[in-house]
Amino acid sequence: MPDDPLPPAGQAQTEHTDESPPRREFNARGSTVVRCPSCNLPELNCLCPYRVSAHCRVEVWLLTHPIEHYKPTNTGRLIRDVLPRTRVFTWYRTAPDPALLALLDDPRYAPFVVFPDDQPGYAERVVDVERVIKRREAGRVPVLILLDGTWRQARKIFRRSDYLAGLPVLPLVTDRQTRYRLRKPASAEHLSTAEVAAELLRQAGESQAADHLDDYFEVFNECYAASRRYIKLTETSPAMQRLLAARQER
Q1: What is the tens place of the pLDDT at every residue in 110-165?
Q2: For residue 54, which of 236, 238, 202, 235 has the smallest C-alpha distance?
Q3: 37 in a domain, yes or no?
Q4: Looking at the domain assignment, is residue 94 inside a domain?
Q5: Which residues form the domain of 140?
């Protein structure tokens, strides 16, 4: 689910534990910035005070291109912060993660690959969000598999992962336009990974999780953009206020 974002007509090495994937040094622009070790944002405007976890009956599994783990502007990690049951797998073309393969065979789960429906070759696999709701009502755990990378990387993951070939494909149908300000999308209709997840969760009836993720994504944008200009945020935005209120309620 690209953070050079995925078109809205469809639009993760190991399962995530309590540790984030290993990070290499930032040797490009921004390598000297002092970052929070938890949220990876510049300490000037740390995101951690606004982190809120949400209960959700739909799980998200991120299949992430290796390069995305090292990008501080990656929004897939925001999903993991808000939805603690999120699993993260690194995609390698010749070495699929055994843990992911085992989960795909687990009858407790009903996985869907989130991908556009305007690509050739798999029209018979395309379903709508009502299928997600029906799987949940039948007692299974619906899973949104998000292909986390640029659009080109996501397309490669989709086409070169044989273990995804038998799964239903869930496109995102929405009029929403991106609010992602840290990378320039090809179109305002191209949503980031976190935005895609929030929108699909909302359509599947998981409104609280979607709202928390949307607000967390907005605060991520605000904090990161201000830090790029070396500005310390001193006022709380509406999204910040909602997240702080949600933390106090817990």
Answers
A1: 999 999 888 778 999 999 999 999 999 999 999 999 999 888 899 999 999 999 99
A2: 202
A3: no
A4: yes
A5: 43-248
How many structural domains does the chain have?
1
Backbone torsions φ then ψ of 55, nearest 5 degrees:
-75, 140
- In whole angstroms, give the CA distance from residue 62 to residue 101: 13
* pLDDT tens profile 101-120: 999 999 999 999 999 888 77
Q: Which of 94, 96, 83, 91 is nearest to 67 (CA)?
A: 91
CA pair distance 191, 26, nearest whole angstrom: 25
Within a domain: residue 7?
no
Residues in the chain: 250
Are residues 213 and 83 in contact, defined by beta-carbon separation less than 8 angstroms?
Answer: yes
126 belongs to a structural domain: yes
**Cβ-based neighbours of 151, under 8 Å, separated by 6 or more:** 2, 4, 5, 6, 7, 186, 190
pTM for this predicted structure: 0.85
Instruction: Tell me which residue has tokens 């998981």.
Output: 206
